Amino acid sequence: FEQGPRTIRPKGVTGLNTLNMIQDLGLSEHVAPIRPDHPAAKNRMIYANNSLHILPSSLKGVFKKNGPFSKPLIYALFNDIKQPHKELQDDSIYNFAERRFGKEIADYAISPMICGICAGDAKEISVKFLMKTLFEWEQNHGGVVKGLMKTMFKSKVNENMELSDLAKKAKEENWNVYSLKGGLQTFP
């Protein structure tokens, strides 16, 4: 059933440039967007301890305990905020997630996600390679939450960047992710 990556994020300069390229290649009619109200965007699940667990899809949900986690997910953010700054050149994604957010987040969320995205071991893959922005927030601002807060109001998209009609539509409709009908193998 698995045929590789199924979706692309349309966020940031890279995501918008990808949409521009898709339109330039004449593939716009093959794009299948996933909007925020779509069940696939709302119902995120993880498999742990021989059971499926639904992840919170709202702000209110992070304040409630959700299996397989022993505490509400908001504690992971508190953990990031209270961690002392640690200057590093690089780290594994697993070590980064465990240090910033706790062992359960690393074990039940990050490690399986990395395995699914790149069929790799989160303990072996560089955080600078796959999650560069999060690592830079930690190194430059002392934590992921602090970095997010400091950069939240800065536009990452160059105001002079020319957007295709497809990229404009993705921004206007706030697509979470998108795919191509027939699979992403249509793209290359």
UniProtKB/TrEMBL annotation:
A GO molecular-function annotation: oxygen-dependent protoporphyrinogen oxidase activity
GO BP of this protein: heme biosynthetic process
GO cellular component: mitochondrial inner membrane
Gene3D superfamilies: FAD/NAD(P)-binding domain
Protein name per UniProt: Protoporphyrinogen oxidase
Protein source organism: Lyssa zampa
Lineage, uppermost ranks: Eukaryota, Metazoa, Ecdysozoa, Arthropoda, Hexapoda
Gene: Ppox
